[in-house]
Amino acid sequence: MSQCAYPEDAAESELPDGCGLLHTSRKYLKLKNFEEEIRAHRDLDGFLDRASIILNETATSLDDVLRAMLLRLVHKPDNTESDCNLDLLMAVLFTDAGTPMEGKAVHLLSDTIQGVTATVTGVQYQQSWLCIICTSKSLLKRHVCISRLVRPQNWGENCCEVRFVILVLAPPKMKSTKTATEVGRTFATMFLDITFRQKLLKTRTEEEFKEALVHQRQLLTMMDQGLTPSLKHYSISSICIPKSHQPLQQKDFFPVGKGIREDFARRFPVYPLDFTDGIIGKNKAVGKFITTTLFLYFACLLPTIAFGSLNDEITYGAIVIRGICDDYDLDFNTFYAWTGLWNSFFLTLYALFNFSLIMSLFKRSTEEIIALFISMTFVLDAVKGIVKIFQKYYGTSHGNHNADHISVLSLLGLGTSLNTSFHTALNTSLLANPPELTSVSSRSAEHSSRETAVLSLLIMLGTLWLSYTLYQFKKSPYLHPYMREILSDCALPISVLTFSIISSYGFQEINMSKFRYNPSERLFKIAEMQSLSLGAIGSAMGLGFLLSMLFFIEQNLVAALANAPENRLVKGTAYHWDLLLIAIINTGLSLFGMPWIHAAYPHSPLHVRALAVVEERVENGHIYETIVNVWETRLTTLGASILVGFSLLLLPLPLQWIPKPVLYGLFLYIALTSIDANQLFERMALLLKDQASYPPTHYIRRVPQRKIHYFTGLQVLQLLLLCAFGMSPLPYMKMIFPLIMMAMIPIRYKLLPRIIEAKYLDAMDAEH
Questions:
Q1: pTM of the predicted structure, to 2 decimals
Q2: Which of 133, 449, 657, 683 is the Cys-Cys partner for 504 at CB 3.0 to 4.6 Å?
């Protein structure tokens, strides 16, 4: 098998009669500047005039592919290379051209250009394309041929999945701007963009292929001009809060409203495209939008039902701050409204004074600790729920199990938030005692049967198994790729509907626990704001301040995770503007006693993942996925929100046919899919793996193994600290939980560098 261009630095080839020497030389090439270097446009124009494009090349070996490309060049009607020798050109392409004894040569490409990503952890090769350059005295002019292979080919180290081959031929005596290397640099700069390569894979004719090349040239020209495209095409890098190494200063938070103005200026030009991208134009993604909308609908609706049911059982039908109000004889609607108004007031201050810049101090490792903690709360929700079912139906005691301690935040009724976010998981799942489960038919008298408990466990595990199997189905070889993608995107609704039908119709004789619905509750009742005393309003301010810290941290944390560089979002972020909008929206919700909203984990990152075009990569035998691009649209969230609103028409039936074990299986599915790309979880798994099976990640290459495990252990300790406060049965421990999360910043910057060298910490916190 032929090997590709970059052998090891100290390469040695054993021949039958002895050893030979192989000279390897590398140099870094600057990207072509399509704005300043006129040759970039002329190189492409020359290629378009005499285009040599091979689509769907079926050859599998490198030699056969190159021979087919040379034949295409030689047999062109306008070919002026009458003295061109095909065999001679093939020989010049490889290192064995000067070997005196035939058949005993080192058969490697002589001169190539490949895309690399230079990071603090080393160099990563782009292995899906290869540019081969060659000079020959027999040539009179320059030639370029591009071949697109039918399927990825493995041609050796750093060339494990080649789909595109670019062949550049030129005579040796050329102007310095017209050499084979310069022409190769032009096309290599274009192919460096993974989104562009993905578009080329979808072209069906040479004309479409040429149009893609012209479009990429225009995009690169705009980027080199320093312009941010505001129409249909965007830069390949995301605009997000910079992880600056410079400490924040007081002047960074002034003038007031600066961050909001910058966010608005950045997002407003592309706002119309949030509704038209994927709908209007050549590249449509209507099918993906529909499946993503269904996923988001079920991911929002079902946890809302589950957490609302838990709150209903704890507070006996009142989703607001019943406990505090009963203790102090307060009108809970009014107290809830004042708490929400103070919360919105503080969020507005955070937005105006650019407090979101503080999130730049949160390193990747800190974000992943909090994200893993949130995932753990979903798991504990499911475990506590199923344990309670077994206590009720399988055990000997069937009494009521009410929580002895209810945290202040859980009394706020956050569990019914549409976003089903962090604090809902925290405060409804981590109670001192699991809440009592009530059947739709009776609240006091339940027939105890072991069949109910065992079936509930099977239904929960079955929901998890089917949903995760369908989620991973896109990696299987079965069915058409489009069908695999649809099944993967619809994994959640399919599994929920399937096991709801199995539970409700397949086992009708077994009584399953379902959520309670009270249609007598009045909606849209405005709170009487004047009925509270100044002391009660002051108490609501204290609760609102603590709540605002929780909202602030999670809103920005989830936004940072969704806008992570590996997600390749390109329309820019709006941290300050989003925070202000959350404050405005929650002001209205507070007045009507409605649940508050904000960005939710893991729903938001999973939403981004559902809209992403994913490509598989192979590195040192390990398969991993990388996001090519993401459809950035508002239509999916808008559609899901409309469907959630129409779900009121589905009460009490058929929504009450969904048993609680299905919801617990949903919790496990959300938790399992949310830890897929969590590096903390991956490094914890390394402790159970053979060292030979370690993936070739950047921290494995850069950081000593012992330091990696030290760092993982320290992260686990921080995770346990979060659990100690966030899962504590003591309400006042939970109240200071936001302060514990903020305390992780000095832990990362002051404490950890005393234990592990800063360069190793930075390497493990790096994106790549």
A1: 0.65
A2: 657
